């Protein structure tokens, strides 16, 4: 048996007599410093680099930053969801509009009326001379609540900080408590929410490569942010049209009065912020104008055409009806989004009906009744 050898312990002289808590702190210090450096690297290098991960979420954040600089010239900005994203080319609008307009497409995929309520105060505060709300029948139906990811992205974009006193304080189904909590989070919590952003980046990259007819754009693209490059037909189109009819039928199940009042709040906010509201009834696919095929969609579209002009008149705005007569079926990529032909025609149609910037008045009009 080998003889027992006593290990040699190299003592650190200055640690002799150290109290237990001090010795523990000395041992843990490198670990704590390493952890702190790791968190700092995540918060200030990794997460800012990837943002929220997906282009749509990063667009929400980019829009907030873009608006911080404000508009120093006569600007007309388009606000809405994917119908706006796909349907408006700001360059074409500028080309055919009266001289003097600076034009931007601020549309965000999924930004229906509930999300427009979140972002419109900051848009108006940036000082555009005209704000175009691109409307469709769902604009006077109950919208789905924003996703938690979207709420955190809007929080990072600084949108809640621009809300006027009392804005969105009413308890409504499309703004549940979880969404409100996410919107009210401090910046660092929203950044941590997107700690899996690198996964989103990888997934989106794979989808773009594997999916036909999808165009990838920069998040901060305010001219022509469209994504679709092909059109569907046949049974795929038929199925999409039926989904749109069902979507509207469910959204107006409780009536439209409350949602018309919410739309009026948006129009009033634009005017009270010193801008001219421009309301555009977006093109409807001809098949959805058949009462026998899409009764809910047809009826709600007709209702919007009665509500819209009244709101425009009440708040010193402009109403443009592009719901029918502007496009035929060849201008649609699917049941609601426009293809290149439709985008060019709609953009020119709106541009030619914009007034000269100097002819638009600024100032407040009465609050909503």
Label this structure with key terms:
elongated; Rossmann fold; 13 helices
* Low confidence ranges: 363-369
CATH topology: Rossmann fold
Distance between the termini: 99 Å
Query: What is the C-level CATH assignment?
Result: Alpha Beta
Plain-language structure description:
- The chain has 13 helices and 5 strands.
- By secondary structure, the protein is an alpha/beta fold.
- It has a single domain (27-358), classed as Rossmann fold (3-Layer(aba) Sandwich), CATH 3.40.50.1110.
- The protein has a 5-stranded parallel β-sheet.
- Strand 4, helix 12 and strand 5 form a beta-alpha-beta unit.
- Helix 2 (55-68) packs parallel to helix 6, helix 4 (90-96) runs parallel beside helix 13 (340-351) and helix 10 (234-251) packs across helix 12 (295-314).
- It is elongated.
- Residues 363-369 have low confidence and may be disordered.
